From TrEMBL:
<dbReference type="InterPro" id="IPR014349">
    <property type="entry name" value="Rieske_Fe-S_prot"/>
</dbReference>
<feature type="transmembrane region" description="Helical">
    <location>
        <begin position="107"/>
        <end position="126"/>
    </location>
</feature>
<keyword id="KW-0408">Iron</keyword>
<keyword id="KW-1133">Transmembrane helix</keyword>
<keyword id="KW-0812">Transmembrane</keyword>
<feature type="transmembrane region" description="Helical">
    <location>
        <begin position="18"/>
        <end position="39"/>
    </location>
</feature>
<keyword id="KW-0479">Metal-binding</keyword>
<keyword id="KW-0001">2Fe-2S</keyword>
<keyword id="KW-0249">Electron transport</keyword>
<dbReference type="Pfam" id="PF00355">
    <property type="entry name" value="Rieske"/>
</dbReference>
<dbReference type="InterPro" id="IPR045603">
    <property type="entry name" value="QcrA_N"/>
</dbReference>
<dbReference type="GO" id="GO:0051537">
    <property type="term" value="F:2 iron, 2 sulfur cluster binding"/>
</dbReference>
<keyword id="KW-0472">Membrane</keyword>
<keyword id="KW-0560">Oxidoreductase</keyword>
<dbReference type="GO" id="GO:0046872">
    <property type="term" value="F:metal ion binding"/>
</dbReference>
<dbReference type="InterPro" id="IPR017941">
    <property type="entry name" value="Rieske_2Fe-2S"/>
</dbReference>
<feature type="domain" description="Rieske">
    <location>
        <begin position="173"/>
        <end position="272"/>
    </location>
</feature>
Length: 289
């Protein structure tokens, strides 16, 4: 045995003794745990002996794996990626021969035409994302069909006179010519001007005021009127608006007042708007800049 081999042998035997010592400590810990358990010893002592047993076992196995088991990198040889010369020659002959797909110029042209048509067709859906020829989304959400001169009509399309708005109820109204507009519904109600805490932001006609019918929380119709309190309630999320205080929200999740609609009596005796709502109608989300 050579000198290096003798030194390696001595290191292996020292490591073996170290591992055996660790396992012996583990065994002593296990025996201590068993004895303590049988004799009814302290719980803390039992835990300590059990910890010594597991620690000795872990140290012995770690040293065994680290020092005595073979270590080092292992390389698995791979076949070369390049094809044999014969296969490369056959592939070149197939690509350059009369039956080669790249020699069929007519088919290649048709393929290029099909791909080009598909590419152009893909541009049309992208065009719909651009505001070409249409109103900007933020402006479209901000404006409504109401404008100066637009008459107020009922759901049946009948123009509304001031006398049609009684003291006992609210009257849903719509912009004439836009009965199905999503942000155009409004309601007219007659209030006692002497009870105003805040005057209506859009003004009134001897107590007749018009507000947007859409709740400023989620856009539900505010369809419940409490005449005694002058409040409108939204049945969806229980928001309440005080019409005697500028239609500001006084309960529920709504955070904005109901927009008002300025109105006047036209030459024909019917009510008509003098402009758009005083604020964007509907959910408050749409009023963000």
């Amino acid at each position: 045995m050579t000198r290096p081999e003798q030194q390696a042998d001595r290191r292996d035997r020292a490591t073996s003794r170290l591992i055996a010592g660790a396992f012996a400590i583990s065994a002593l810990g296990a025996v201590g745990f068993a004895v303590g358990y049988v004799t009814g010893g302290q719980t803390q002592l039992a835990g300590a002996t059990l910890a010594v047993a597991f620690a000795g076992l872990a140290v012995g196995l770690a040293i065994w794996a680290r020092k005595l088991l073979p270590t080092g990198g292992y390389v698995e040889e791979h076949e070369p990626f390049a094809s044999p010369p014969a296969q490369r020659r056959l592939a070149a002959a197939d690509l350059t021969g009369s039956g080669s797909p790249i020699r069929r110029r007519g088919l290649l042209g048709a393929l290029a035409l099909a791909l080009g048509a598909l590419g152009v067709a893909a541009l049309f859906p992208l065009r719909s994302l651009l505001p070409v020829g249409s109103r900007r989304p933020d402006r479209a959400l901000r404006d409504s069909p109401w404008a100066a001169g637009v008459r107020l009509v009922t759901a049946e399309g009948r123009p509304v006179r001031p006398d049609d708005v009684t003291d006992d109820s609210v009257l849903p109204v719509f912009p004439e010519g836009h009965p199905r507009s999503g942000d155009g519904p409004a309601f007219a109600v007659r209030l006692d001007p002497a009870r105003y805490a805040v005057r209506p932001p859009a003004g009134d006609l001897a107590g007749l005021v018009v507000h947007s019918l859409l709740c400023t929380h989620a856009g539900c119709p505010v369809a419940l009127y409490l005449k005694g309190t002058g409040r409108m309630l939204c049945p969806c999320h229980q928001s309440a608006f005080d019409l005697l205080a500028g239609a500001r929200p006084v309960a529920g999740p709504a955070a904005r007042a109901l927009p008002g609609l300025p109105v006047e009596v036209g030459p024909d005796g019917f009510l008509r708007a003098t402009g758009d709502f005083t604020a964007p109608p509907g959910a408050g989300f749409w009023s963000r800049q």
